[in-house]
Write a structure and sequence with these properties.
Layout: H1 37-40, E1 111-113, E2 178-181, E3 186-189, H2 215-218, E4 233-235, E5 250-252, E6 272-274, H3 292-302, H4 323-328, E7 346-348, H5 351-354, E8 447-449, H6 471-476, E9 483-485, E10 490-491, H7 494-500, E11 505-508, E12 519-521, E13 540-543, E14 546-548, E15 555-557, E16 564-565, E17 570-571, E18 584-588, E19 602-608, H8 611-616, H9 618-629, E20 640-646, E21 650-654, E22 663-667, E23 683-684, H10 689-702, H11 713-724, E24 729-735, H12 770-780, E25 783-791, H13 797-800, H14 802-805, E26 811-815, H15 823-838, E27 842-851, E28 855-861, E29 865-868, E30 871-877, E31 883-889, E32 898-909, E33 914-926, H16 929-934, H17 938-955, H18 958-979, E34 989-991, H19 997-1005, H20 1018-1030, H21 1033-1040, E35 1043-1046, E36 1055-1058, E37 1061-1064, E38 1068-1069, E39 1081-1085, E40 1089-1094, H22 1100-1107, H23 1128-1142, E41 1149-1153, H24 1160-1165, H25 1178-1189
Parallel strand pairs: 10-33, 12-18, 19-20, 19-24, 24-25, 25-26, 40-41
Antiparallel strand pairs: 1-7, 2-3, 4-6, 5-22, 8-34, 9-11, 11-31, 13-14, 14-15, 16-17, 18-33, 20-21, 20-23, 21-22, 27-30, 27-32, 28-31, 29-30, 32-33, 35-38, 35-39, 36-37, 39-40
Helix pairs in contact: 9-10, 9-15, 11-12, 17-18, 17-19, 17-20, 18-19, 18-25, 22-23
Main location: cytoplasm
Keywords: Cytoplasm, Cytoplasmic vesicle, Endoplasmic reticulum, ER-Golgi transport, Membrane, Metal-binding, Protein transport, Transport, Zinc
Biased composition (Low complexity): 272-292, 310-320, 335-345, 364-379
């Protein structure tokens, strides 16, 4: 068959010349200076009608971004103590290790300039633009170059190619900061020569807390841990492609795998460079109480925005020509079209600016102050206009405009009038009830005697607490399913937070599936000029021409286009725009938010075909699922797909259009892996669909007789990285055993005799950094790696998980997988694949979280790469991924009654659109400890502590993490009981809001991730920890504390109606064997699996009608499906189980449990209120807590 190629040079990945893929029309269209009014009506049609609407381009400009390769690889976890940072001190610094934490620093950025659309005025009138002129109160000057929305424009050819090389031309600037030692309470100035703003790299712990220790430090003995020295080294993972590669690969007949010839390639180089040491920001002293007027003036004068200063982003892990990747994600460096500035206004254009770093003037206290309007006072009668999340209700189009309120202070120019809308400084009159101590005690503060009241579990699922806001703000607030805070009443100071002994943090589910989502197509995305916050329902309009940011309090101009509301077809009502009526919106971004054409959807499947994999039988399920869902893969006409298989060699598949059958190309030199035919291994899905189907039909039988027992996973991943580097995309890896050949080979580290240890659990961290380095390289090229581990033996998931953890991928684990011997796992894989292959996906994404001035973020949890101080790089984002954030209070919030949080997720859709999804959450500020407890969200607190405990387990020990979880309960209840009056020391009292706290913590301690004394496989434990770090709250809580229902007595009395279906609603049962009866049948919902336990004496009518068998003895051991029987009890049971399944993305499998079933052990281990040999019962746990409190 002859050699496939000779003198071939494979793509180097970073900075190589790459093919140009066409972008959909509309992404690079010219925007006219003027548009007729009729065109404006189309601006928001995407909110109601499906279909593609072009996003008009603004000033497209290729930028020269700064690139600093130095990055700090974290060895800190969730302590708030900054690492040692220069100076002469040689004292050790305490810390811990985290896969998702970082240190907050700031750094100088490089800038590019864009023409501003609102810089010059013209003589034309508003009427000439076709707008209805209906205001007698405001002069409405028109500016030239205003961008008006339109539906379609003549497309312009997309410019630029993937992998375009940029040059680094700027370095971090010199700044000033101090080193703080939290243990000695000393603050040491760093010598000027050592002062720098340092870019933050891979997963370091952000340290921005005040001199008062944060809540994690104050939970003594809690999740703070001792810190190890960091090596400050990162892998650049560059690939040297400077020399041509001479290689020969055999073109093997498709049906005869096995013939191989040696091949060689350039060796992947690994370059380490030390990162500069870091130090924390100097602590902020609590602000002195001052008048709201003065506070407002100072906030606007400096335009300050805590913890969102621009930071120099580290370059991707590659060669020196990697600035392209840095610039590619320029999310919000885009032209700021929300305010009038000079046409040469500098705009950040690197990663930080992408999602919108601050402007240069916002980082200098010497910048010119902006005009300072007087403090606004809204009458009690005026109310904000808006509706509930997330639909756009038709009624508000006919709402009566509010009456302007006269100013109470002479701070404004006489020509301006106050514009009524609820905002941070306008709501004091309508926020009654925030100070709970002066009113009737709320239900959330009702004392509960935990040792006396045994029935604390509610009959239905625990709802998220409702923030104590007025009804109008409540309707506008973000859904807790997307954005949730551990405390719905934010303490005024860090000292008050420390007294409460509760963590402050956010739980995010930013990309979740939504049934209704306002989608906004506009050439103007209105944002704050200072902190880059997107306009939202919680800003305030001073008048028709100015709005005040609810995060940094800067006053901004209202763009001309924003004055027109296409939904009401009216002019002069900016407060009625959809952006200001919905806390969750999605913008169609213009080309200003792109630095290359949107990438196509690219999918690469890397499949283990060793003897172990063939025996397990997973290939048949995977190939069949792909065949069934091939047409449902998210994408457009540019979608590309490829396949790699591996055992002791690596096999590629040529699927180029025109071939009669797929060609297998085998590379046996795994120590020097290369791509035999780079141009034909990733093919267009639509053009080569028949060849792809032929391959999927043949793959399960191609390796039936293989005797290869080795696994060259590392070389296969290296090849996959090279293949995906030019475009980015998603790599799906299927692995069935421990990698045993080539790069990344692993050895068994598990001692089966130590699985039940009550002391030390070892090897929770990776054995090698190969997979982490590879993941960081993939992240730099916008490629995520998803891992499917189908293993019957130890596979060192602690090491393999790094490939997904640091590339923003996801992990699926199927222990003891076998297609025929374990049908439950086989069914689970099939259902998971259906969801995985068809769910929506976002490519080349970045996410930033902003918060009100005075608050700061110091630790992230989840699967991602930290690109800069508060910017997360997500090569892929999926709707099933969750994130957690720890926060602290840097400055006193005495001068504000509300705080807001906003997350912005910029991504490329599978259709090639650049989109920005924005969520905004508003919460009240309180000054009393009782109010803090009243607003505690116990489920959010537990989920955040679970994330923190995982990091503590890896950085310190499992025993330390367990102790810290127990101490979290002890400390918080001790603090509460010390503030409550008339409490007897013999009682264990908790506020009603925290009555489930001890129960949930006990459930957490009995999870596979943290339990001891029970035989737990190391891979099972590590997978549980991975789930804790990446699951959204709603799914994580099912995993921690399952729901138990009795279903043999379902009736039509307590039901709900869902569409045309009647769904029974049985009450929740305690997770205790005392609730089980031999005469009953019980369903346990564990999130990813349903257990249906049947008692030995269960009614035969139920068994016959629901299970389809005449009696208990005839029910099979491995039953996973309920038959459709025409009986009321069968219909009720199936309706209830279907309703539970419909509430989550992954469809859980059902497993019927009998007394002699081996799975009975798993079922009873979830009964967390019962005692086991190595763990307390719930009542014993309460007594232990009470004993520690009384010490």
């Amino acid at each position: 068959s002859g050699p496939v190629q000779s003198q071939m040079q494979f793509p180097s990945g970073y900075g190589s010349n790459l093919p140009n893929y066409g972008a959909p029309s509309g992404h690079y269209s010219q925007v006219p200076n003027k548009a007729a009014a009729s065109h404006l009506d189309n601006q928001y049609r995407a909110s109601y009608y499906p279909g593609y609407y072009s996003a008009p381009a603004q000033n497209v400009m290729t930028s020269v971004g700064s690139s600093v390769l130095n990055a700090q690889e974290s060895q800190q976890l969730y302590n708030n103590t900054p690492p040692h940072s220069g100076g002469s001190s040689d004292r050790p610094v305490q810390g811990a290790i985290s896969s998702a934490s970082y240190l907050h620093m700031s750094a100088q950025q490089s800038y590019s300039t864009f023409d501003n659309h609102y810089s010059t005025s013209v003589s034309s009138s508003v009427a000439s633009q076709g707008f209805p002129f209906n205001s007698d109160h405001y002069a409405m000057p028109v500016v030239s170059g205003a961008m008006y929305p339109n539906v379609s424009y003549p497309p312009v050819a997309a410019g630029g190619v993937y992998g375009q090389t940029f040059t680094s031309q700027s370095l971090p600037a010199v700044g000033q900061f101090k080193e703080t030692n939290a243990f000695s309470s000393q603050s040491t100035s760093v010598p000027h020569s050592l002062q720098q703003h340092i870019p933050v790299g891979y997963n370091t712990t952000l340290s921005t807390v005040s001199s008062a220790q944060s809540v994690q430090d104050n939970l003594s003995r809690n999740l703070t841990g001792s810190v190890a020295k960091v090596n400050n080294q990162i892998n650049t993972g560059g690939i040297d492609s400077s020399q041509p590669v001479h290689s020969v690969s055999q073109n093997v007949p498709f049906t005869k795998p096995g013939a191989v010839t040696s091949a060689s390639s350039a060796v992947v180089s690994s370059v380490r460079s030390p990162a500069p040491s870091l130090s924390s920001k100097p602590p902020s002293s609590p602000s002195v109480t001052q008048s709201p007027e003065r506070a407002l003036q100072e906030g606007m004068q400096y335009g300050g925005y805590v913890n969102n200063q621009a930071s120099s982003a580290p370059a991707p892990l590659s060669s020196s020509s990697d600035d392209e990747e840095e610039d590619e994600e320029d999310e919000e460096a885009a032209l700021d079209s929300s305010s009038t500035t000079s046409s040469a206004s500098p705009v950040l254009n690197n990663y930080d600016a992408l999602e919108g770093g601050g402007y240069p003037e916002t980082r200098s206290v010497t910048s010119s102050p902006v005009p300072t309007p007087s403090v606004l006072q809204t009458s009690k009668a005026s109310k904000p206009f808006g509706y509930g999340y997330p639909a756009l209700q038709p009624g508000y189009q006919n709402a009566t405009p509010p009456t302007p309120v006269q100013p109470s202070n002479p701070g404004h120019h006489p020509g301006f009038q106050h514009y009524p809308q609820a905002c941070v400084n306008q709501l004091s009159s309508s926020l009654g009830g925030l100070s709970l101590q002066h009113s009737q005690q709320p239900e959330s503060l009702r004392p509960v005697n935990l040792t006396h009241d045994r029935n604390i579990l509610p009959v239905s699922s625990v709802p998220a607490p409702v923030p104590n806001l007025n009804s109008d703000l409540r309707k506008l607030n973000c859904s807790p399913d997307s954005f949730r805070c551990t405390l719905t009443n934010i303490p005024q100071t860090q000292a008050l937070l420390n007294k409460a002994k509760l963590p402050l943090g956010l739980l995010l589910h930013p990309f979740r599936d939504l049934t209704q989502l306002p989608v906004i197509t506009s050439s103007t995305i209105v944002r704050c000029r200072s902190c880059r916050t997107y306009i939202n329902p919680f800003v305030s309009f001073i008048d028709q021409r100015r709005w005040k940011c609810n995060l940094c309090y800067r006053v901004n101009d209202v763009p001309e286009e924003f004055m027109y509301n296409p939904l009401t077809r009216s002019y002069g009502e900016p407060h009625k725009r959809p952006e200001v009526q919905n806390s969750t919106v999605e913008f169609i971004a213009s080309s200003d938010y792109m630095l290359r054409p949107p990438q196509p959807a690219v999918y690469l499947f890397v499949l283990d075909v060793s003897h172990n994999a063939v025996e397990a039988g997973y290939l048949t399920i995977v190939c069949q699922s792909l065949l069934e869902n091939l047409d449902k893969l998210p994408g457009d006409s540019r979608t590309r797909i490829g396949f790699i298989t591996f055992d002791s060699t690596v096999q590629f598949y040529n699927l180029q259009e025109g071939l009669s059958q797929p060609q297998m190309l085998i590379v046996s030199d795994i120590d020097d892996i290369f791509l035999p035919t780079p141009d034909s291994l990733l093919v267009n899905l639509h053009e080569s669909k028949e060849l792809i189907k032929d391959l999927l039909n043949a793959l399960p039988n191609m390796f039936t007789n293989t005797r290869e027992t080795h696994s060259a996973l590392g070389p296969a991943l290296q090849a996959a990285f090279k293949l995906m580097s030019p475009t980015g995309g998603r790599i799906s890896v299927f692995q069935t055993q421990l990698p045993s050949l080539g790069a990344g080979l692993l050895h068994s580290r598990e001692d089966p005799n130590q699985r039940s240890s009550t002391k030390v659990v070892q090897h929770l961290g990776p054995a090698t950094d190969f997979y982490k380095k590879l993941a960081l390289d993939c992240s730099g090229q916008q490629t995520a790696v998803d891992l499917f581990l189908l293993s019957s033996q130890y596979s060192d998931l602690a090491s393999l998980a790094c490939m997904s953890k640091y590339s923003a991928g996801c992990i699926y684990y199927y222990p003891s997988f076998h297609r025929s011997h374990n049908p439950t796992q086989a069914e689970k894989l099939q259902k998971d694949l259906k969801r995985y292959l068809t769910r929506k996906i976002g490519f080349e994404a970045v996410m930033r979280i902003r918060c009100t001035k005075g608050l700061s973020i110091h630790t992230f949890h989840g699967n991602f790469f930290v690109r800069s101080t508060d910017l997360l790089s997500l090569a892929n984002v999926n709707p099933d991924a969750g994130f957690a954030v720890q926060m602290s209070i840097e400055e006193s919030l005495t001068d504000t009654s509300l705080v807001c949080f906003q997350t912005a997720l910029l991504y490329t859709s599978s259709k090639g659109e650049r989109r920005i999804r924005v969520h905004t959450l508003c919460l009240p500020v309180v000054s009393s400890l009782s109010d803090v407890y009243a607003g505690a969200d116990v489920q959010a607190v537990v989920c955040l502590l679970a994330n923190m405990a995982v990091d503590r387990s890896v950085s310190s020990s499992l025993a330390d993490a367990r102790d810290a979880l127990v101490n979290a309960v002890v400390d918080s209840l001790t603090a509460y009981m010390s503030t409550a009056s008339n409490l007897q020391q013999s009682m264990l009292i908790a506020p009603n809001s925290l009555k489930l706290f001890p129960l949930y913590i006990l459930a957490l301690l009995k999870q596979k991730a943290f339990r001891t004394g029970t035989s737990t496989r190391l891979d099972d434990r590590v997978y549980a920890m991975c789930q804790m770090k990446s699951q959204p709250l709603v799914h994580l809580m099912k995993m921690i504390h399952p729901n138990l229902y009795r279903i043999d007595k379902l009736t039509d009395e307590s039901t709900i109606h869902v569409n045309d279906r009647v769904v029974p609603q049985p009450p929740l049962q305690k997770l205790s064997a005392e609730k089980l009866t031999r005469e009953g049948a019980f369903l346990m919902d564990c999130g990813s699996i349903f257990y249906l336990w049947i008692g030995k004496n269960c009614d035969n009518n139920f068994i016959k009608d629901v299970l389809g068998y005449p009696n208990y003895a005839s029910v099979p051991q491995k039953m996973t499906q309920l038959p459709e029987v025409d009986a009321p009890s069968s219909e009720r049971t199936r309706s209830f189980i279907s309703w539970l399944r419909d509430s989550r993305p992954l469809s859980p499998v059902l497993q019927v449990i009998k007394d002699e079933n081996p799975a009975k052990t798993d079922f009873f281990q979830h009964l967390i209120e019962d005692r086991t040999e190595a763990a307390f019962s719930y009542y014993e746990f309460l007594l232990n807590i009470q004993q520690q409190i009384c010490k």
